[in-house]
Amino acid sequence: MFNQIRLRAWSEGLRSQPSLPLRVELWNGQRFDFSPDPPCVTVRVPRASALRYLLSPSLYKLGRAYVEGAIEVSGRANDMIAVVNALAANSLAGNMRGVLPALGLARLSGMLGLLGNAIGGGHTRQRDAQAVRYHYDVSNEFYGAWLDPNMVYSCAYFENGNETLAEAQLKKIDHILNKIGVRPGHRLLDIGCGWGALAIRAAQRHGARCVGITLSDNQARLARERVERAGLTGQVEIRVQDYRDVGGQFDRITSVGMFEHVGVRQLPAYFRRMATLLTPDGVAMNHGLTSTSPDSHGVPHGGGDFISRYVFPHGELAHLGTVIKAMQEGGLEVRDVENLRRHYARTCALWTDNFEANSERIKGLTDARRFRIWQVYLAGCTHAFTHDWISLYQIVCGKAGRDPAALPWSRRYMYAQTTGS
């Protein structure tokens, strides 16, 4: 009875906000519609015990409720993004701060949780390897069902805004290789090489000799197969290796979507290792997610706890200022910074579309629980990047203290060849 009273008060409060194409269904058939129009998203509470997730919500509680099947959500992904947008706006006003986590997290962004785990310690080789394998070793078929054909799992680059996902991912790789000036014979290290797309492209198009490293056995296996099919076995080497164990010297180094695994406190050591591996006139790029909190604080309402448990164990994001400071402490000079937040919002929207369009196939590639986790992880990313909750920067750097006469006068060279086959 007490919960019913609280539920009625909660419902009346939500109805006082602008209308939402949303329905909440209870186990007893009772419905709450929040718009005169037909609902595009329905949240179903199948038993009375699950009411607590609506009445006393947090990102962790609601995310867990959805993943574990305590609440159910149905509706089209794009409609859900629209609902999340409206709920987010309303949750910032008055006493409705609980509305967003109460209803939006059924598919809210897993990316957000990366912001909530800046605990700094514990990034050992073994622990980092376990975290990476948990996330990436679902199966190659799983990722292939919603990524582009090259299976690039990072922010794409939309030069004109109308590219397909496959075109934009290829342009992203070319954009990176142009920025760092890869030349024939250059030795390139790709830290966190994924399924090998960047290393293969650098070898094919620029004549580089590449080493790609990953901690995922699944990624390494498929990447090696792709290298062999491309006829690049003598030019591209794929290793299962921690960045701390790499030796030698490299003319160019790329790190794309990897440094989020490093840990905020470990960033100076990470960049110091990168500087050690660079030749005196070498160039490196770090492409990665950043917190928009100047203090690298996490998302409220327990979002970090949810993602730490379900999506990305031990992931941490630093603010851009923290990253640049860590680079300088590691002996690197920042030469160029580009914000690609808008590009990641678009990338995540296309990933979400692919995931939903291939949902039946994906359900056959994993269990229902993990399927729901990835709905949470993907569908809300569009909202997160659109509204500057998290961001993405490409940072070009080189060894500190070098003669600037060796550097180009302008940035024109970066955009000369962003397209091509």
Automatic annotation (TrEMBL):
Residues 10-90 form the DUF7884 domain. InterPro entries: CFA/CMAS (IPR050723), CMAS (IPR003333), DUF7884 (IPR057206), SAM-dependent_MTases_sf (IPR029063). One of its GO terms (biological process) is methylation. Keywords: Lipid metabolism, Methyltransferase, S-adenosyl-L-methionine, Transferase. GO terms for molecular function: methyltransferase activity. PANTHER family: CYCLOPROPANE-FATTY-ACYL-PHOSPHOLIPID SYNTHASE. Belongs to the CFA/CMAS family. This is Class I SAM-dependent methyltransferase. It comes from Massilia violaceinigra.
